[in-house]
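Supplementary notes for students who missed Thursday's class. We covered one full example, reproduced here. Read the sequence, then the structure, then the short commentary at the end.
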Amino acid sequence: MRKLNFLKGIVDFVWITMLITIPFLLFFVGMVLFSNEPLDIPIEINGTTLEVVDFKSKLIFVFLIISVSLIIYGLFLFRKLLRLFQLRVIFDSEIVMLLKRIGFVIILSAFLGGIPNFISELLNNNISLSLGLNPFVLLFSLGLFFLVLSEVFVIAKHLKEENDLTF
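Structure (token representation):
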């Protein structure tokens, strides 16, 4: 239980820090999207430097912002999941639903962040093949992990229900 409380504390700290910085980020995003002049601030996302000046780069930037917003929503769902674990609600349909939703949100975020990154590299004629872990693979794998975990919890829930009926 101590590990769960420690994890919940870390997630809450990250959540509060994000809530403090979100208004500043929204202001920055508005400046980038609605300004016709390039900013002197380099924007680097997933190892790709993005100069937001034309419509294509602004569209890529919007996809990346949506991807980050989905990660924030996934973190919100993860906080809810940890709160239910703290309340010792384990084998419940809400847990399964939260795990599935977290998995789908993370996978969608991986695609919305990975595809624009690929398009950006394609537009800059900077296509390269690198073997190893990149953010797309990590996010996609994490999303699949949450989906598999939701299926494990479905099986465990059915086993618990069968066990409760035998007594």
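Commentary. The first strand starts at residue 43 and ends at 45. The mean pLDDT is 85. If anything here is unclear, bring it to office hours.
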